[in-house]
Design brief:
Layout (H helix, E strand, L loop, with lengths): L6 H12 L12 H11 L2 H8 L6 H12 E3 L14 E3 L2 E3 L3 E3 L12 H12 L3 E3 L7 H8 L4 E5 L5 H13 L5 E4 L9 H6 L11 H4 L2 H5 L9 H11 L10 H7 L4 E6 L2 H9 L4 E4 L13 H12 L5 E3 L6 H9 L4 E4 L1 H32 L13 E3 L2
Parallel strand pairs: 4-11, 5-6, 6-7, 7-8, 8-9, 9-10, 10-11
Antiparallel strand pairs: 1-12, 2-3
Helix pairs in contact: 1-16, 2-16, 5-6, 5-16, 13-14, 15-16
The structure holds flavin mononucleotide and the ligand CCCCCCC(=O)C(=O)O.
Length: 391
């Protein structure tokens, strides 16, 4: 039997066993409850850094609302006893179409930070995408994951030597794809962070990958150990590169043989350009509503982009995945896999590695059960006929 088809039953049994005498310390099941507990654990600064969006949060809200506008239309009598949630991407088979989104500065959420999230993902067989802005270095994160699947997310530094060095280090430490985030060459107008006067990078969080990088260090007049403030200031000036254009993509291709995915694509014409420039995949994303307030929701953008891409390269998506039904809807609209962001961070805040593990496990179980009850046994069979849009 496929490994994934057990998740639903495991969770059901656990819930039913604890029903007569609920343990008050039991970890939450509901997304909203994880978020509420995270709110209790974290100070205003870190909590709103995670939970907040750009501007008036119109796009962040739209990300969730558009999932509700699509309805699953279940089918019956289709033998769904054995389900297959596995997915193949770039020649590798993954247990499920779910990945841990790249998330930086996790030390503001839990002292174990990215190491906890990476270990939980590795244990679940869920690929972990290490952020350039991780508190821990990409090598430390790779070390705790053993041979488990991992990708690396690149913030394209102004200094080409640093960008090339990151790509080289990612290959050397066993990352098997590069996700280039294009929507954050600079931080957006984030009202909670401005109100709270909270930017983790300025207190040295999330720069671990840089401080250990030989190319980054070679640009500093003195070492970061001697003058941490100067190192952070140098980072703020070089972190993002708003001057990039499509023709610059050839630089990345020259410096890595790994598959390259572009994250932050929302316009169908950019999807077309991505293919013309030979990229290997696309992540439809508005960064969880954290960058352009007023931008199209990721789920609205997804089918428009899939219509252009026509399965020539894999299209992944994130921004708004909260429950198993969201996973099924995104896949039915053309995504090959989805990335999970804030839910994992609330799990991390509440219970460290165990919390992330529980969030991922529940999400997988929920997706598996939703597939089964909708009469779908393989993600390859999912298509738009499974859904209906209610405006
Ligand atoms: C606290 C936080 C930090 C993030 N850091 C990064 C990052 O370093 N690199 C990146 O590409 N995306 C980053 N993201 C965006 C996520 O990868 C993903 O696009 C987003 O969380 C999806 O939206 P959702 O959380 O609403 O599901 C971050 C998101 C959050 C909440
Ligand atoms: C100076 C911008 C760094 C942003 C890195 C973390 C991130 O992507 C986020 O959304 O927050």
């Amino acid at each position: 039997m496929n490994r994934m088809s057990n998740f639903g039953n495991q969770v059901q049994f656990k819930v039913y066993q604890t029903m007569p005498n609920p343990d008050p310390d039991r970890l939450p099941v509901k997304y909203e409850e994880w978020e509420a507990l995270a709110r209790e654990k974290l100070e205003d600064g870190p909590f709103y850094y995670v939970a907040g969006g750009a501007g008036g949060e119109e796009t962040m809200d739209a990300n969730l609302r558009t999932f509700n506008e699509w309805k699953i239309v279940p089918r019956m009598l289709r033998d769904v006893e054995n389900r297959d949630l596995s997915v193949e991407l770039f020649g590798q088979t993954y247990v499920a179409p779910l990945m841990h989104a790249p998330i930086g500065v996790q030390s503001i959420i839990h002292p174990d930070g990215e190491l906890a999230s990476a270990k939980a993902s590795a244990d679940m067989g869920v690929p972990y995408i290490t952020s350039s802005a991780s508190t821990k270095s990409m090598e430390e994160i790779a070390d705790v994951m053993g041979g488990a699947p991992r990708w690396f997310q690149l913030y394209w530094n102004k200094d080409p030597e640093v960008t090339a060095s990151f790509l080289k280090r990612a290959e050397a430490s066993g990352y098997s794809a590069i996700v280039v985030t294009l929507d954050t060459p600079m931080m957006a107008w984030r009202e909670y962070d401005l109100k709270n006067v909270y930017l983790p990078f300025l207190i040295g969080e999330g720069v671990g990958n840089y401080l250990t990088d030989p190319a980054f260090r070679s640009q500093l007049p003195v070492s970061p150990e001697e003058d941490p403030t100067a190192a952070i200031m140098h980072w703020t000036h070089t972190f993002g590169n708003p001057g990039l254009t499509w023709s610059d993509l050839s630089f990345l291709r020259k410096h890595t043989s790994l598959p390259i995915l572009l994250k932050g694509i929302l316009h169908p014409e950019d999807a077309q350009l991505a293919m013309e420039h030979g990229v290997d995949g696309i992540v439809v994303s508005n960064h969880g509503g954290r960058q352009v307030d007023g931008a199209i929701s990721a789920l609205d953008a997804l089918p428009l982009i899939c219509d252009v891409v026509q399965d020539e390269i894999p299209v992944l998506m994130d921004s708004g995945i909260r429950r198993g039904s969201d996973v099924v809807k995104a896949l039915a609209l053309g995504a090959r896999a989805v990335l999970v962001g804030r839910p994992c961070m609330y799990g991390l805040a509440v219970a460290g590695e165990q919390g992330v593990h529980e969030v991922l496990r529940n999400l997988l179980a929920d997706a598996d059960l939703t597939m089964a009850l909708a009469g779908q046994k393989s993600i390859a069979d999912l298509n738009r006929s499974v859904l209906m849009k209610i405006d």
